[in-house]
Amino acid sequence: MLVLSRQKDESIMIGDDVKITIVDVRGDKVRLGITAPKNIPVHRIEVYEAIQREKIEKKAKQQ
Fold first, then answer.
1. How many domains does the chain have?
2. Quick check: is 54 in a domain?
3. 31 - beta bridge partners?
4. Domain annotation covers residue 6
5. Sorting pLDDT into bands at 50, 70 and 90, what band is 7?
6. Half-sphere exposure of 31 (CA within 13 A, CB side)
7. I need a labelling partner for 23 at 20 to 30 A (CA). Which of 4, 9, 31, 51 fits?
8. DSSP letter at 40?
């Protein structure tokens, strides 16, 4: 895991197409702005995991 320090309004790039910007820092919360092409899904991890579970359940029902 790469760990970077950033301050408000600073960004990092992932590849050539994904930009993550620190929008706000309040206490122990950080707000991120993510700019990515529409073909790259961006989800909070709990949403991503729910989507993956649904895919597995749907696949199991089809078999």
1. 1
2. yes
3. 24
4. no
5. very high
6. 6
7. 51
8. S
pLDDT in tens, 21-60: 999 999 999 999 999 999 999 999 999 999 999 999 999 9
pLDDT reading at 63 higher than 90: no
Q: For residue 6, count other CB atoms closer than 10 A to its CB.
A: 14
Given a contact cutoff of 8 angstroms between Cβ atoms, the answer to whether 9 and 31 are in contact is: no
Decide: 20 and 9 in contact? Cβ < 8 Å: no
Give the pTM: 0.82
- Asked, for residue 43, whether it belongs to a domain, the answer is yes
Structural domain including 49 reads 11-62
CA of 17: how far to CAs of 48, 55, 56, 58, in Å? 20, 27, 29, 31
